[in-house]
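Next up, sample data.

:::
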Amino acid sequence: MVGWLSAKSMESEMLKRTELLLQVLLEIVMEHNVHSIRPSGEKWTGSYWDEFASLPAIVPRGPIAIFGLGAGTAAHLMLDLWPSLELHGWEIDQILVDKAREYFALSDLEKRTPTGGILHVCVGDALSPSVNVSGGYAGIVVDLFSDGKVLPQLQEVSTWLELHGKLMPNGRFMVNCGAANDGVSDTTSPESWSIDHSWVQNSTIRALCQAFPREVGVLTGVHVLWAILTSRYVNQVIAKSCYDQRAIASALDSSTADGKGEDDGEMDFGVQGCMLEGVALLNWKKMPKEEGENYVALTGPLPDLATWSAVLPDRLSMTVNQWRPCLPL
């Protein structure tokens, strides 16, 4: 009995000392996979969770969902930086939620901040068709894993097409796509990869790229207005208009409403039609080795990086320029 009490006392002391470590980890023991992390005395995690905190700056006003809340690592960061946010955190594991409330201060996020921000914790399957909010989510963070791997559903184009319906217009996904070497496409060879194409190593990004392909607009018969607007300027306008490249093309085409059609011969560029450069609707970055080497994806046109960087704290603004569009192979 004495030995048993001594062992229990030692265990208690070890737990107390663990709380003094720089980081508190919640692990899935079977897979040795870090599920959530809450730094002690330090805001940033030094991992992909930090990237999620940059999403509110580039989405419309409205609720943001976290699919795969875990113990609330991303929610803590997002409400710390954006205290007026309304977050909906979906987690399938009720026991994990209970432990997070006890040890990760998750319950603190379930109370409104002075500016109205709050985390609504929802227990259930984030991919269920019933998961939705009136008007759609402004943004959705997707961090769904099972047995240490990205959910296989996220590697299917149909899943992303269904999830897209949960977003409001101009809403975006930011996705933890897991490791680089989760499988190589059967239709691409390693010899063809470049720094701009290394995303092909990740099957989740490949599925996203098919679900959110590049949009290419063809302008024909646009004369005076096209002469004024250089292709570079038009592309800037399109980038700022988020998803609706076709609306720009339609607006420019309407300049021919004076009766001069596509074949009026008044274009002086040597061509009768001009192909706009495609706007990628998917962007990616790879975390550095010391931060886990995960791939992260962002849907929608690549934001203006200077503007995005300017509204973020230093820790995030320094890494914004690492985002790049998924270029066609």
Observations:
- The mean pLDDT is 74.
- The first helix runs from residue 2 to 18.
